[in-house]
Write a sequence for this structure.
């Protein structure tokens, strides 16, 4: 390799190129593939049709999260289609020799929560999953991205992928977040700024003092939503915060291997003088809690802001898109969202379902009751998160406040498992997508942080969390 | 995968921008464990009302749209979820090519792997195509992958970009998994060198 300064992305890319023919995409080695029940069945069928094996079962880990119910695990699954899909995942894991955390496992959870939690996710790796939020793992200084089912089959069979090298973008976030402003607000503000296609074709590296100050959980929240800005991947250089998080986890290196690994990981951060194809800056000092009003994650405003007016948009397609969104959401331009009634509050998803997120929400709900007529669902990201929360007594806080405390899964983030909005209902959701019907046909989603969600759960209307924080 | 070279097809327009894959195929249809029947649920919530009856105003429900094989879509088509069910549903319906000013990365990859051709045109051409589709219910366009051109009714031909590798794969029906399986030696060498 030459001595030109390189970015974090470039270093990981270079270390994983198996070969690069002219005019062809690179063959990229994949260190870890995570598998779930929804995007893998047709890939295993492809392997069977071609009489292929999984090349590296030791680099493949499966769980069930999307269509799994979040009610009591001892009860049978009512949805026959979901049950069939789960059974197929178990059969595929068994037939191909893949480790699986199934519905009864005490380590089951959302794929992007359990990877880091088990220490499977480590700096410098390439990680893929048939799931666009695989970008979450980039928080550890990995190159992690979502792939389609055809590509899932390719990685199962060859442990490689054909990849065109993306461009690089540096998102610098400097400054100090005000009280009540979280990692979720950073990423929602960024997407509002660059748009849902602003990162298309790019691997984004987040840097700056406000990123360094984040916990691993906050960093995961940020990298998680990179895809909502169109980016191929999101990543953050590993540092002491990263090493401290990984140390001692089940699949993390141990003893002398650990020291060697950390020494390697310290080489990963972007070299001085390395260049990116694009640079975007965001001032952390100026950020407020964010909330979305429309049907894509770029349609967000500071919570004290006003719903924009379609007539003020320059481009006629954008005008039409905003008009359509406001009609679907039944919201008026020029109005504030504060005080708008809410039917459901959902605290969960691979964006905000980790222990830190639950602590933020519990801190606001402690000793209080949620508003009448509001359904509040708290869905931990994994069974390990659930146990940790229960040890800390957070489940009691939520239950006493009148919220539902559920088993781990994707739940109302994607509404495949029966947890869903009714048509016309409004939710405040800590998830990542406010697309039409995402949380149930006709449902209306407003994305926000766990603080904003919890504050709104108490009042029953959209509430600025700063008004309830001391 | 079937090779693609040239085809001419009925063309319809769906100008909405940032169409996400949740609209192309809602998540509740992702419990399928095969690829069958996805064309029927394409754009389900835009296409059908609460009773499952077709909404007459939706483009794919209009009589002239039947048998359409080319879709002119808005900017940033296919954003959001990585579900390959989206191109499966579009193909299941009968589409062979989608034209836009930009595609979301994963959707574009997934489409190419299934032989659904994503065609990127400039803004001006895009507007013209949307106008043509709106004015002329019988609009037909022709696609020639070899010359990378789109043929308009007035005889004009517009070039479109496609990377040489994908073009080769589509023209010859090469499947990428087969291509990778033939690289076994290189993969093994890499694994040995990196002690993986
Ligand atoms: S929580 Fe939501 S976004 Fe995350 S993996 Fe599950 S369905 Fe996808």
């Amino acid at each position: 390799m030459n001595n030109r300064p390189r970015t974090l992305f470039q270093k990981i890319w270079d270390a994983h190129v198996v070969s690069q023919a002219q005019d062809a995409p690179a063959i990229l080695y994949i260190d870890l593939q995570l598998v779930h029940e929804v995007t893998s069945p047709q890939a295993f069928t492809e392997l069977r049709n071609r009489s292929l094996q999984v090349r590296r079962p030791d680099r493949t880990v499966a769980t069930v999260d999307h269509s799994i119910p979040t009610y009591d695990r001892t009860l049978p699954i009512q949805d026959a289609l979901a049950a069939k899909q789960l059974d197929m995942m178990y059969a595929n894991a068994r037939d191909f020799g893949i480790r699986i955390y199934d519905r009864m496992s005490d380590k089951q959870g959302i794929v992007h929560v359990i990877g880091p939690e088990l220490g499977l996710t480590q700096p410098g790796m390439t990680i893929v999953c048939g799931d666009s939020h695989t970008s979450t793992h980039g928080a550890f200084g990995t190159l992690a991205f979502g792939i389609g089912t055809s590509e899932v089959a390719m990685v199962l069979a060859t442990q490689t992928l054909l990849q065109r090298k993306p461009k690089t973008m540096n998102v610098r976030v400097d400054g100090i977040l005000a009280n009540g402003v979280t990692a979720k607000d950073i990423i929602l503000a960024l997407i509002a700024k660059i748009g849902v296609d602003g990162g298309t074709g790019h691997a984004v590296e987040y840097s700056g003092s406000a990123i360094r100050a984040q916990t691993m959980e906050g960093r995961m929240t940020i990298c998680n939503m990179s895809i909502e800005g169109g980016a191929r991947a999101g990543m953050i250089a590993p540092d002491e915060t990263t090493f401290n998080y990984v140390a001692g986890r089940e699949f993390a290196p141990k003893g002398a291997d650990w020291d060697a690994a950390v020494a390697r990981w310290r080489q990963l951060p972007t070299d001085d003088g390395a260049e990116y194809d694009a640079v975007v800056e965001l001032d952390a000092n100026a950020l407020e809690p964010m909330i979305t009003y429309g049907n894509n994650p770029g349609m967000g405003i500071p919570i004290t802001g006003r719903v924009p007016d379609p007539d003020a948009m320059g481009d006629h397609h954008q005008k039409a898109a905003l008009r359509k969104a406001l009609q679907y959401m039944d919201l008026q331009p020029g109005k504030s969202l504060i005080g708008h009634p809410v039917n459901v509050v959902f605290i969960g998803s691979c964006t905000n379902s980790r222990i830190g997120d639950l602590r933020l929400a519990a801190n606001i709900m402690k000793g209080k009751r949620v508003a009448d007529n509001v359904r509040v669902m708290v869905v931990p990201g994994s069974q390990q998160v659930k146990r940790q929360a229960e040890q800390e007594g957070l489940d009691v806080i939520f239950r006493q406040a009148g919220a539902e405390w559920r088993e781990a899964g994707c739940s109302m983030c994607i509404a495949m498992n029966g947890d869903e909005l009714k048509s016309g209902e409004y939710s405040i959701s800590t998830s990542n997508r406010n697309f039409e019907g995402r949380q149930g046909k006709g449902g209306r989603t407003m994305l926000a942080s766990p603080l904003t969600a919890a504050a709104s759960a108490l009042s029953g209307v959209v509430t600025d969390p700063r008004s309830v924080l001391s | 995968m079937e090779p693609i070279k040239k085809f001419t097809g009925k063309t319809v327009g769906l100008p909405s921008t940032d169409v996400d894959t949740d609209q192309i195929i809602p998540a509740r249809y992702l419990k399928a464990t095969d690829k069958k029947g996805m064309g029927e649920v394409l754009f389900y919530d835009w296409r059908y009302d609460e009773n499952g009856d077709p909404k007459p105003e939706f483009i794919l429900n209009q009589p002239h749209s039947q048998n359409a094989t080319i879709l002119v879509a808005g900017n940033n088509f296919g954003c959001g979820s990585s579900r390959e069910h989206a191109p499966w549903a579009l193909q299941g319906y009968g589409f062979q090519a989608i034209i836009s000013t930009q595609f979301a990365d994963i959707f574009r990859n997934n489409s190419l792997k299934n032989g659904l051709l994503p065609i990127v045109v400039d803004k001006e051409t895009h507007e013209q195509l949307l106008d043509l589709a709106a004015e002329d219910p019988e609009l037909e366009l022709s696609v020639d992958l070899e010359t990378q051109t789109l043929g308009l009714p007035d005889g004009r031909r517009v070039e479109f970009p496609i990377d040489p590798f994908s073009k080769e794969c589509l023209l010859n029906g090469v499947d990428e998994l087969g291509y990778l399986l033939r690289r076994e030696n290189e993969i093994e060498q890499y694994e040995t060198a990196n002690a993986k």
Residues 80-96 of chain A form the longest helix (17 residues). The first strand of chain A starts at residue 17 and ends at 19. Chain A has 15 helices and 19 strands. Residues A 65-66, 110, 112, 131, 133, 349-350, 410, 413-414, 431-432 surround iron/sulfur cluster (CB under 6 Å).
